[in-house]
Structure formats: structure tokens, C-alpha cells
């Protein structure tokens, strides 16, 4: 019963989209602006750096909180990682917004850092190296995110590897068009130089 309540709580917490509240606070609806995405990037583009930071911290904070809640309930890492998955699903597909949420980056960052700081540190290092080479946050992030599940494979936690592979796969799928645009932009830049 506790596990079922935990997973439902994770989904509901994930479905609380900071960008929606920030947009309403500023007198608008971010779903009708620019990309229409309820995430930190769109909030920052439309409303400025303060809105980006507030949205990123809000979404990252809820990700960290669901991990801390799972630990407080003394659940196994497997159940906590499933709570992580449910929070991501809530963020991407909130029931109260007809399944149109954010893309999960900030929520993933907060939850992954809280779940395993070592795996997150490897992810961050790979991101920084790739960003220095590629000069694209989107492309660097998409590749670096793969490091997180690989860490659990490396330490022999196959169950966690599978769950985090699913989480990363869902997030990368949601970023498909952003990734495509970034590759095309990079290709045209290279071709024209």
C-alpha cells in the first residue's frame, strides 16, 4: 500500500509544472508562447533569466524531493527509481493539462543528483567535455544523459540500469525534434564555414 501511494505521489508531484505557475504569476500562459513547452528553457526565453532559474529550481527541487521521500519511507533503491520514473511521467504527461507538460530535464537533474551523486558527477563531466567540443547544450546533454544508466551497469545494478535507460529513453524521445534541429544547425554551420 505504501509503495502504491508513493508512486502515485511521485506522479502527482511530477505533474506540478513550475513553468505553468510562473507564467500565470507573470500574467500569461507559456503554452501559448514560443515553443509552447512548460519548461525552464521556454520560461527563460519568454520571461527572462529569473523565470528560467525559478522554473529550473522548482522542477529540479520536486525531483530531489521524491527521491528523499522514498528514502525517508525506507524503500529499496528499485522502488525509489520507479518513483523517479513516475515523477518524470507526471512532468511530461500531467493529467490536469491533458498530457502536455515539460520535457523533464530539470526534474531529471534534481532527481538524478539526489539518487546518486556519483553517477550525476560522471554525467556532468561528460556534458562539460562535450559542450566544449560541440558548443551545443542540447546535443551535449543528450549524449551525456546516457552516462547515468551506464554507471549502474558498470557497478552491476542491472535492475537500476534498465529503469534509468527507460527514463533517459523517454526524455530523449521528447527531445527528438530539438536534437534534430541542433544537428541540422550544426551541419549547416559547418557547411557554410
From TrEMBL:
Protein's organism: Chryseomicrobium palamuruense
GO molecular function: acyltransferase activity
Membership in a protein family: Belongs to the PlsY family.
Pathway: Lipid metabolism; phospholipid metabolism
PANTHER family membership: GLYCEROL-3-PHOSPHATE ACYLTRANSFERASE-RELATED (PTHR30309:SF0), INNER MEMBRANE PROTEIN YGIH (PTHR30309)
Membrane-traversing stretches: 78-96, 108-134, 146-173
Catalytic reaction annotation: an acyl phosphate + sn-glycerol 3-phosphate = a 1-acyl-sn-glycero-3-phosphate + phosphate
The protein's enzyme class: transferase
Record function comment: Catalyzes the transfer of an acyl group from acyl-phosphate (acyl-PO(4)) to glycerol-3-phosphate (G3P) to form lysophosphatidic acid (LPA). This enzyme utilizes acyl-phosphate as fatty acyl donor, but not acyl-CoA or acyl-ACP.
Record membrane topology: Multi-pass membrane protein
Keyword match Ion transport: no
SMART domains: G3P_acyltransf (SM01207)
Subunit structure: Probably interacts with PlsX.
Primary location recorded for the protein, binned into one broad class: membrane
Enzyme Commission code: 2.3.1.275
Localization per Swiss-Prot or TrEMBL: Cell membrane
Keywords attached to this entry: Acyltransferase, Cell membrane, Lipid biosynthesis, Lipid metabolism, Membrane, Phospholipid biosynthesis, Phospholipid metabolism, Transferase, Transmembrane, Transmembrane helix
UniProt key word Acyltransferase: yes
Name of this protein: Glycerol-3-phosphate acyltransferase
Pfam families: G3P_acyltransf
Amino acid at each position: 500500500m505504501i509503495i502504491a501511494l508513493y508512486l502515485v505521489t511521485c506522479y502527482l508531484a511530477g505533474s506540478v509544472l513550475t513553468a505553468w505557475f510562473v507564467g500565470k504569476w507573470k500574467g500569461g500562459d507559456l503554452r501559448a508562447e514560443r515553443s509552447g513547452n512548460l519548461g525552464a528553457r521556454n520560461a527563460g526565453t519568454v520571461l527572462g533569466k529569473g523565470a528560467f532559474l525559478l522554473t529550473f529550481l522548482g522542477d529540479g527541487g520536486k525531483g530531489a524531493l521524491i527521491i528523499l521521500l522514498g528514502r525517508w519511507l525506507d524503500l529499496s533503491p528499485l522502488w525509489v527509481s520507479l518513483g523517479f520514473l513516475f515523477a518524470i511521467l507526471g512532468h511530461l504527461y500531467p493529467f490536469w493539462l491533458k498530457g502536455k507538460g515539460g520535457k523533464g530535464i530539470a526534474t531529471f537533474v534534481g532527481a538524478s543528483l539526489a539518487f546518486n551523486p556519483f553517477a550525476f558527477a560522471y554525467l556532468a563531466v561528460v556534458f562539460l567535455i562535450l559542450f566544449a567540443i560541440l558548443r551545443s547544450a542540447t546535443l551535449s546533454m543528450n549524449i551525456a544523459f546516457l552516462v547515468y544508466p551506464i554507471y549502474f551497469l558498470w557497478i552491476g545494478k542491472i535492475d537500476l540500469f534498465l529503469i534509468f535507460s527507460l527514463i533517459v529513453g523517454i526524455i530523449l524521445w521528447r527531445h527528438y525534434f530539438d536534437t534534430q534541429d541542433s544537428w541540422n544547425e550544426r551541419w549547416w554551420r559547418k557547411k557554410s564555414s
